[in-house]
Amino acid sequence: MRLDSDEFAADPHHAYDEMRRQHGPLVPVEVTAGVPATLVLGYRAALRILSDPAHFPADPRAWQAKISEHCPVLPLMEWGPSTSESDGEQHYRHRTAYLAVLADIDLYQLRGTVESVAVSLINGFCGAGTADLLDEYAIPLTVGVLEAVLGIPEQDGRELFDAMAGLRVAANARDSELHDNRFHTLLSNILSAKRSQPSTDVISRLTRHPSMLDDTEILAQTAVLYALGTEPTWNLIVNALLLLTTDSQFRAGFLGGALSVREAIDEVLFLDPPLANGCARYPRQPQAVEGLWLTVDQPVLISMTACNADPALTGERHGNRSHLAWGAGAQSCPAQSLASVIVEEALEQLLDALPDLELAVPASDLRWQPSAFHRAPLAVPVIFPPCPPLPLPQRESRR
Ligand code: HEM
C-alpha cells in the first residue's frame, strides 16, 4: 500500500483493517513511490518501539544517506539539529529547554490570544453566510496564535508562513532549498532581534534557558516548534468540527449540553488523530517485532490511527485518553496542553458565534489530503445564517 495515494486517503480506516487482516500488527508499506517502510498497526508493538530508543532511535541519517535527495518526503523526515530527530544526550538537553519554556506559557492568557484571533477571523466571514473553515479559520488561527506565543511579529509571520507553505509544496530540491533558506533567514533575523530586546515569549525564553542553547540550536528548536506545532493543530480543529457537524449523535449531545467540545476532541484523537502516521524510528540492528524481521535503517512508522483502533485493546474506551495521538515515550509531544487549549478555544468561539453552521456539501464529498502522515480534509466548506460582526474582546491578549 502506498500511504500517499488517493486511494488510501479516501478511506484509510478500511485500508488499515485490510492490512491488519492480511499482515497482522506490522505491515510493509511505501511512504511514497520507492520509499519502503514498516507501518505498525498494533498498540503494544508501538509502545515497545517508542519506549526503546536504544534499539529504535529517531535519528534518520543512516536511512537518509541511502535515498535520493529528490525524494518528496525528505523535507518531512530528514535529520536536523532538533529534538525530534535526535536521541540520547542531545535530545535530553533540547527537550529540557522545550519543556521548561512551554510550561511557562500562561494558559489563561493563551485563551485570550485564541479568543481575539478567533473573533477577528469570524468577523471576516460571518456576514457572508459561507466560509471554508480550513483556509479562513483553522489555518490562520493556529498560525496567528503560535506566532504570538513564539514572539514572531505579524509581518515576519506572514513571510514565514509563505516560506513554510512553499517548502511543503516544493517541486524539487532547488525550490525546497530556496524556501528553506528563506525560512531560516527570517527566523535568524527574529532571533537576533530577541537577543538584543528579549521579551516574555518562547523564543526569548529559549535564549535565557540554563541549557545555554546556541543560535543554531535555538533556530532549529523554533523551526521545529513552528513546523510540528501548526499542521496537526489546525487539522485537529477541523477534524473535531467535522465530528460535531456530521455525527448526529455528537451533534445532538453537544447541542443538548450532554457533550462538550473537549469530548469531541478526545474522540477525534482516538478515532482520527491529525497526525495519523508518524514517530519514525530506524532500527540499527536486525530485530524481530511480533514475528516480523525489520530491515536495518529502514523507517518504522507508527500508525496512531490504527493502533488506537487495535482490536486487541480491551476495556472501556469512552473518556479514556490512552490513545497514541501525542506519541509515547521520551519523544512524546511536549505541547499537549498548549495544543488542547488552542483547539478547544477555537471550537468554542466558532460554535458560540455560529451555532447553526453546517457542512455545505455531504460529508462523503469531502476530499482528503493524500499524505502518508496527516489526516486532513483539503477544504471544509460550511454554510450558516449570516450575522453581524462580534465585539472584539477587551482583555489584553497578544504577548
Ligand atoms: C493537535 C496537535 C498536535 C499533535 C496531534 C501532535 C503530535 C505529536 C506527536 C505524535 C509527536 C511525537 C513524535 C515522535 O515521537 O517522533 C509530537 C512531538 C512533538 N511535538 Fe507535537 N503535536 C501537536 C501539537 C504540537 C504543538 C502545538 C507544538 C509546539 C508548539 C508541538 C511540538 C512538538 C515537538 C517539539 C515534538 C518533538 C518532541 C521531542 O522529540 O522531544 N506539537 N507531537
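^ protoporphyrin IX containing FE complex. The radius of gyration is 21 Å. The longest strand covers residues 26-32.
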